[in-house]
């Protein structure tokens, strides 16, 4: 993984100043790759690591949307209100309607678990956010009967 200073030299979306050296408070510095195409929006949503809140509507502690760039991986800085155990989700909302369409959109989570047809187990996706935590998420799209990363990434 690239060092924080190298990532910040490139385009960082979201709230980049929250991930600069010396920034106060915890944040996730998330690099997302594996886009199927370059349309729509990328959403980063961060949830408390509990069953009641995980992926529940409006129960995130941070949510940032940004248009998908023409090429390459995208890096988003997402500050959170306090340190703790959280879950980072990335959604490639291809039609930019703000809703997850399982047979069209791409999704990924912190720690890049293998995905099935239901939400992943909390213990497979939770991370500690203390300070600035760098992570990479690879998007998964439906392929046959299950979501998986694309064999040939279109992020170029």
Helices and strands in order:
Blueprint lengths: L3 H6 L2 E3 L12 E7 L7 E8 L13 E6 L6 E6 L4 E10 L12 E4 L12 H4 E4 L2 E7 L2 E3 L2 E3 L8
Parallel strand pairs: 1-5, 2-9
Antiparallel strand pairs: 2-5, 3-4, 3-6, 6-7, 6-8, 10-11
Question: What are the salient characteristics of this protein?
Answer:
single chain; 156 residues; 2 helices; globular
Molecular structure report:
Helix content is 6%, strand content 39%. The chain has one domain (4-143). It has helices at 4-9, 122-125; strands at 12-14, 27-33, 41-48, 62-67, 74-79, 84-93, 106-109, 126-129, 132-138, 141-143, 146-148. With 156 residues, the chain is mostly beta strands. The mean pLDDT is 92.
The count of domains is: 1
Largest sheet: 5 strands, antiparallel
Radius of gyration: 15 Å
- Based on secondary structure, the structural category is mainly beta
The proportion of residues forming helix, as a percent range, comes to under 10%
> What overall geometry do the principal axes of the alpha carbons give?
globular
Distance between the first and last residues' Cα: 18 Å
Order of helices and strands: HEEEEEEEHEEEE
Regions with little confidence, pLDDT below 50 for 5+ residues: none
The number of E-state strands comes to 11
β-strand amount: 35-45%
Provide a quick synopsis of the model:
This protein has 156 residues and is mostly beta strands. The protein is built from two helices and eleven strands, in the order αβββββββαββββ.
